[in-house]
Design goal:
Its cofactor is Mn(2+). The protein has about 325 residues and is of the alpha/beta class. Helix content is about 35%, strand content about 15%. Strand 7, helix 10 and strand 8 form a beta-alpha-beta unit.
């Protein structure tokens, strides 16, 4: 079974931390390249096109204005990401966004949603993260937009961002599955519940196991599904992945994360990917970047499975 919808991957660097509360994620794309991302994908039989880095405004490092930090700069970066990701999808390529902070998912996922609307595909988004990122300016005092992308994609936020792809909302909450969540603000939690977002938090994974969580998150995929994975590196436990700006203890272990990625690969529906919030300034000799590359290899088909035939899973 193929592991992705395309055999050609386009790497798109977006070196900015304009939506984050800590500096350093702007160095993430280069850290992933240094860790051998392109070579690892090529080893899985994938054709890799490295498009280099997008360009956008510098991080002005200013306090929030009217509830948002750096709104103009975030909009500029996300417009660039949107156009770059959409162009690759139109060429039949699998875009891999190298962040940068998680606000960039507004651009990438709105582009994927636009592509799916045009092609008649069903979109499913897997949000691998320690945080729900479902804040609004009313719910968070920081105004950091990297805590708001899922809400924005679902139509809650500044009009310029909610309409990036020409249609708002870009996503319905029913299209999103969040995995690994373990840090949610009280107001944000109420909003998540009100919008009926499907969340497989760490309590659920502790009780039911990663396999069951992923079976639920992947249920209902079919040959017409485009699967987008938004991989925030702080999804991982900080004991194995210290190089992020917002560490939250108690995340997935190495093996749990590998199982998560291998089960996604098993679907054969991966069509686009974000790798975000890698912060080399807080890392240990690029350890977290190397781990991220290792996990992405599994996402593209590298497996520890020794059985000759995969056991059919029930959904």
């Amino acid at each position: 079974m193929p592991t992705t919808l395309s055999n050609t991957v386009a790497l798109i660097g977006a070196p900015t931390d304009v939506g984050a509360g800590a500096r350093g994620a702007s160095m993430g794309p280069e850290a992933l390249r240094v860790a051998g991302l392109a070579e690892a994908l090529q080893a899985q039989g994938v054709r890799v096109l490295d498009r280099g880095n997008l360009h956008g405004p510098a991080n002005p490092w200013q306090p929030a204005q009217d509830g948002y930090r750096h709104l103009d700069e975030v909009l500029a970066w996300n417009r660039a990401v949107h156009e770059a990701v959409h162009a690759e999808l139109q060429q039949g390529h699998l875009p891999v966004l190298l962040g940068g902070d998680h606000c960039l998912a507004m651009g990438s996922i709105s582009a994927v949603a636009r592509h799916c609307r045009a092609t008649g595909q069903t979109l499913r988004v897997l949000w691998l993260d320690a945080h729900a990122d479902f804040n609004t300016s009313e719910l968070t005092p920081s105004g950091n937009l990297h805590g708001m992308p899922v809400a924005v994609l679902c139509g809650f936020g500044p009009q310029a961002l909610t309409h990036l792809g020409g249609t708002s909302p870009a996503l319905h909450p029913s299209q999103v599955r969040q995995i690994g969540i373990r840090s949610v603000d009280p107001g944000e939690k109420r909003f998540v519940h009100a919008q009926r977002l499907e969340v497989y938090d760490m309590r659920y994974i502790d009780e039911m196991g990663m396999r069951h969580a992923m079976e639920q998150a992947l249920a209902g995929l079919d040959a017409n599904t485009h699967l987008h994975v938004s991989f925030d590196v702080d999804f991982l436990d900080p004991d194995i992945a210290p190089g992020v700006g917002t560490t939250v203890p108690g995340g997935p272990t190495y093996r749990e994360a590998q199982l998560c990625m291998e089960m996604i690969a098993d679907t054969g529906r991966l069509g686009s990917l974000d790798i975000v919030e890698l912060n080399p300034a807080l890392d240990e000799r690029n350890r977290t970047a190397r781990l991220a590359v290792d996990l992405v290899e599994s996402l593209f088909g590298k497996s520890t499975l020794m059985r000759e035939h995969q056991v059919r899973r029930r959904h």
